[in-house]
Amino acid sequence: MPKTLAEKVYDAHVVRSAAGEPDLLYIDLHLVHEVTSPQAFDGLRAAGRTVRHPELTMATEDHNVPTLEILKPIADPVSRAQVEALRRNAAEFGIRLAPMGDRDQGIVHVIGPQLGLTQPGMTIVCGDSHTSTHGAFGALAFGIGTSEVEHVLATQTLPQYRPKQMAVTVEGVLPEGVSSKDVILAVIAKIGTNGAAGHVIEYRGSAIEALSMEARMTICNMSIEAGARAGLIAPDQTTFDFLQGRPHAPQGADWDAAVEYWQTLRTDEGAVFDTEVVIDAAELAPYVTWGTNPGQGLPIAESVPDPAAIADEGERRAAEQALAYMGLEPGTPLREIKVDTVFLGSCTNGRIEDLRIAAELLRGRHIDPDTRMLVVPGSVGVKLQAEAEGLDRVFTEAGAEWRGAGCSMCLGMNPDQLKPGERSASTSNRNFQGRQGKGGRTHLVSPSVAAATALTGRLTAPADLADAPVPAVV
Amino acid sequence: MDAFTTHTGTAAPLRRSAVDTDQIIPAEYLKRITRTGFEDGLFVAWRKNEPDFVLNQPEYADASVLVAGPDFGTGSSREHACWALLDGGFRVVISSRFADIFKNNSTKSGLLTVVLPQAEVEALWAAVEADPTTSVTVDLQEKRVTYGECSVPFEVDDYTRWRLLEGLDDVGLTERHLDDIEAFEARRPAWLPKALPALPA
Fold first, then answer.
1. Which tens digit of pLDDT belongs to each residue from B149-161?
2. Residue A214, C-beta contacts closer than 8 angstroms, at least 6 positions apart
3. CB B29 within 8 A of CB B84
4. Would you give the DSSP letter of residue A354?
5. Closest chain A C-alpha to B106 CA, distance in angstroms
6. Which residues contact residue A313 at a Cβ distance below 8 angstroms, ignoring those fewer than 6 apart?
7. What single DSSP character describes residue A281?
8. ipTM of the shown complex
9. Does the beta carbon of B175 lie under 8 angstroms from any beta carbon of chain A?
10. Is the pTM of this model over 0.80?
11. Nearest beta carbon to residue B30 from set A35, A224, A250
């Protein structure tokens, strides 16, 4: 029977299947960070259990870490205690940890691919909903809660119910200045923040195949913002080229055996999807969000919508609440919205390609004097690479702040936060109320829109900059 | 995990859709390393900033059943959202649709999530708004929500229901199948990656 890519990966990991029970699924890689793991390790200790496979587990510090003075102890005692708990737990249970200051440290979803630990066909979990990022390699990767973190630590497996299958097909060529972030914001605007509930999404079509690995990761990363358990893309030569030579990628004969297997990881002709969504690449434009969930987005040329025009009562009320929180009037052109802060970073858009795209727009220019711009590389590896390319100087000469690696202002668990009423253009993944700081207002954007916005202080597409070269974005 | 069989209490009508886990408990409240004590973060922004927020109204202050709009629990995978609801006195959340990870987490932490059609949610909202003292019984054994003259059936898969009724620990259940896990491990290709030893870039 023909199978989808996700079904192939799922079936290859079923340890046990019994009628009336969830399947038991084997987990190839478990990524761990400081926020969602301490109670899981406590649970192991309380039950006298060990970590079944420390070598299939990798920990890092990312959510709480400051992006300034990272070699000093964390000033916030509560954050420090959480990071120290991870250090104790990693030492006690024999788990590899990339701590602050380590060259492998970074956002958990940036370092997995960077180290070559993320590979096609794997099952990957982490106590973080953006684990879907790793699906860009054709892995089945999903976020879990702390009870499940404990379960994976103890057994290297998870009880799972077979997900439904959704295809999101993007055919054609993306217009200049339209990035993979715009693709996924358009998808979420179309199907809603929980529109893919119960599903795994496979992104396919010529526009997806043309994307770099970094761009594919951006799309898969935000699958959860459409409610999907996971999102994935079939591995191809772009995937193999990205992986080859990375520290934990197979080598020699192992590489050949792996590639031979990886090439089978494609949806079969005739495989059935429960739900299909089709997007015409040519019709896409740079997207920005206007509301308080990632589905409340529009092309930047549009205006803030009028809730009165929304027929569904629930959606109308949600739009009214969103506009009240965001401090926006219906009918205001999105391009006229003034921001205080631009945040470039996160597991969505904190990789080297994202920094290159933004730096290209900022090179030789200066950001708006009333706007601050934080550039936070997704990992120490990305930071070192960017510095080797001189991107750090481009950012600082343009007036932006060049910071250390971590989750930073994506969720404001460290000191990088918006103040009440402040407004950001952010390359992160969530514009929920208070996400970037109490009372903060977030507009989700792509890296090129972030850079253009920093230059003008208003939501701006790169093409709006009169003298700007339009970057070759994929 | 505490077993869940049946619960009777009053209900709070939360007339909002797509309530994300950042609203249920913001990130700054996730720094605690214990499994309890999260009630201070529960809906904290709405409780502090919106005087008419439902949980600020004295007649709903003791509610133990939360009746929410569709797509409850979207966003982050934080199980702290379930813990905060439990610590805040809730045993049941009713909605017409939940986000997957939140629903999954709820079944691991002993918080019962009940899916009812939106029309039934609206009827329940109307009843508890008309009379906040309305007693609502959620019976997992019988798979029914009962209040006033109304009794509404709900669906829950038999396996999850059994686990919740017994208060069973998933790890213990999985450990019964160690032979299957070992057999699977013996078949895994040797080239699959290992995080240890750390290899240089």
1. 999 999 999 999 9
2. A351, A352, A353, A354
3. yes
4. H
5. 9
6. none
7. G
8. 0.97
9. yes
10. yes
11. A35
Cβ A28–B192 below 8 Å, yes or no?
Answer: yes
The tokens describing A7, both together, are 């079904």
Residue B78 and residue A224: Cβ atoms within 8 Å? Answer: no
Residue A47 CB partners (closer than 8 Å, separation 6+):
A154, B171
Which residue among A15, A82, A435 places its CB closest to the CB of B22? A435
List of residues 6+ apart from A209 with CB closer than 8 A: A236, A238
DSSP conformation letters of A18-29:
-TTSPEEEE-SE
Closest residue, chain B, to A223 (C-alpha): B75
Domains of chain A are 5-262 (3.30.499.10), 287-464 (3.30.499.10)
**What is the identity of the amino acid at B145?**
V
The answer on pLDDT for A394 being more than 60 is yes
Fold annotation for B6-186: Aconitase; domain 4 (3.20.19)
Q: Which residue of B has its CA nearest to A408?
A: B27
Q: Quick: pLDDT tens for A45-94.
A: 999 999 999 999 999 999 999 999 888 889 999 999 999 999 999 999 99
In chain B, where are the structural domains located? 6-186
Residue (of A192, A242, A195) closest to A216 by Cα position: A242
Judged by CB atoms closer than 8 Å, whether chains meet at B17 and A314 is answered as yes
Interface check B2 vs A, CB under 8 A? no
Give the residue from A296, A295, A290, A284 showing the smallest Cα distance to A334: A290
**Beta-bridge mates of residue A299:** A287
CB contact under 8 A, B171 and A155: yes
Query: Which residues numbered 44-83 in B keep a CB inside 8 Å of some CB on A?
Result: 45, 49, 69-71, 74-80, 82
Are the C-beta atoms of residues A301 and A335 closer than 8 Å to each other? yes
| Residue B35 contacts A where some CB pair is shorter than 8 Å | yes
The partner residues of B107 in beta bridges, in order of sequence, read none
Q: How many CB atoms lie within 10 A of CB A251?
A: 12
Query: Is there a cis peptide before residue B197, judged by omega within 30 degrees of 0?
Result: yes
Closest by CA position to A99, among listed A62, A149, A44, A145 = A62
A233: closest CA of chain B, how far (Å): 19
Nearest CA in chain B to A103: B201
Half-sphere exposure of A409 (CA within 13 A, CB side): 33
Q: How many residues does chain A have?
A: 474
Rounded to whole angstroms, how far apart are CA atoms B151 and B138?
Answer: 10
The SS3 of residue A423 is strand
Of the candidates A140, A136, A147, A144, which has an alpha carbon nearest to the alpha carbon of residue A162? A140
Lowest mean pLDDT among A73-77, A301-305, A440-444, A467-471: A467-471
- What digits encode the pLDDT tens for the residues A247-294? 999 999 999 999 999 999 999 999 999 999 999 999 999 999 999 999
Chain-centroid distance, C-alpha B169: 17
First to last CA, chain A: 35
Q: Which pLDDT belongs to residue A474?
A: 45
Q: Is B59 exposed, middle or buried (0-12, 13-18, 19+ CB in 10 A)?
A: middle
Nearest CB to A227; choose among B22, B99, B105: B99
Computed over its alpha carbons, how large is the radius of gyration of chain B?
20
The strand ranges marked E within A281-431 are 287-289, 297-299, 341-344, 372-375, 401-402, 423-426
